[in-house]
Write a sequence for this structure.
């Protein structure tokens, strides 16, 4: 199963993107990311991961600790990350608005599955960025993926994007196919499952496999999943995939992270440049968690 392939692949892609978050594509064309950097947007040390990886790690920690998915415990751990600096290497330095609002609703007494934003404007990529661990859980179902998304992002558009990401990861884990085939097969599953959902039209470019127009790479969930798929389809190795994702500009940590997670599963841990891995502080603790999470998945 090799949980570390996807999780470390994600964290490395995330850390590559942190220093240039919000940089424009033009800025990155002039000065592209080719290696790990320090400073930049958030002034953090080289190899710093963002809220994306922190929330993903918190999700895994909850599942291991509770021996299953406990929505309240996941939210508790998200709050420990957001307000107590847990699951970070340093301090919490970036929280999306929709995520923050969901956590505040929970802290103020809302039930976990009633905390997430349900409006169209709540379709940032804040649940898509943390959903990858669910792909490793045997027999994970659509409802559970939707619920984990819905802790902070409860609109159907975000839920479908999360389901698609999980399906792509599951296909890579369970089948020996080209990346295009993994994506196509996963899209077909999503099309069938959500055939009566009006939000499916928002995924038209992915369904039609049409990336001829502008690739947008901001924080909108549809832009994020489109960017990731585009980068996976137009590269043939881990390094090129994540660098292409980061150098699209915009929400670079999230695009780099999601792309890195899927590319890590597809190409394997050994495809991730070793100097990038060694530049991530506290990655040894994540590796230990990956072992525990894989043991959980093997038992279930």
């Amino acid at each position: 199963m090799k949980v570390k392939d996807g999780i470390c692949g994600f964290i490395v892609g995330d850390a590559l993107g942190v220093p240039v978050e919000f940089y424009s594509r033009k800025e990155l064309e002039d000065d592209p990311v080719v290696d790990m950097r320090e400073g930049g947007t958030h002034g953090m040390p080289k190899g710093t991961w963002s809220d994306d990886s922190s929330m993903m790690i918190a999700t895994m920690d909850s599942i291991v600790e509770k021996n299953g998915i406990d929505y309240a415990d996941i939210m508790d751990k998200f709050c420990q990350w957001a307000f107590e600096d847990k699951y970070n290497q340093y301090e919490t330095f970036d929280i999306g608005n929709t995520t923050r609002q969901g956590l505040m609703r929970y802290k103020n007494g809302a039930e976990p599955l009633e905390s997430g934003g349900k409006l169209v404007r709540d379709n940032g990529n804040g649940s898509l960025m943390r959903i990858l661990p669910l792909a490793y859980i045997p027999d994970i179902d659509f409802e559970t993926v939707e619920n984990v998304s819905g802790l902070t992002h409860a609109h159907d558009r975000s839920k479908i994007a999360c389901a698609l990401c999980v399906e792509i990861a599951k296909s890579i884990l369970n089948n020996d196919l080209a990346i295009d085939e993994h994506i196509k097969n996963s899209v077909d599953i999503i099309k069938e499952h959500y055939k009566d959902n009006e939000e499916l039209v928002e995924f038209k470019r992915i369904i039609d496999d049409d990336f001829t127009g502008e690739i947008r790479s901001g924080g909108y969930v549809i832009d994020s999943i489109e960017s990731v798929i585009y980068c996976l389809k137009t590269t043939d190795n881990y390094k090129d995939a994540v660098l292409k994702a980061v150098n699209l500009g915009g929400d670079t940590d999230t695009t780099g992270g999601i792309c890195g997670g899927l590319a890590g599963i597809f190409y394997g841990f050994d495809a991730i440049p070793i100097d990038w891995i060694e530049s991530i502080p506290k990655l040894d603790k994540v590796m230990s968690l990956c072992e525990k999470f894989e043991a959980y998945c093997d038992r279930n």
Q: What stands out?
A: Residues 3-299 form a domain with the ADP-ribosylglycohydrolase fold fold (CATH 1.10.4080.10). The chain has one domain: 3-299.
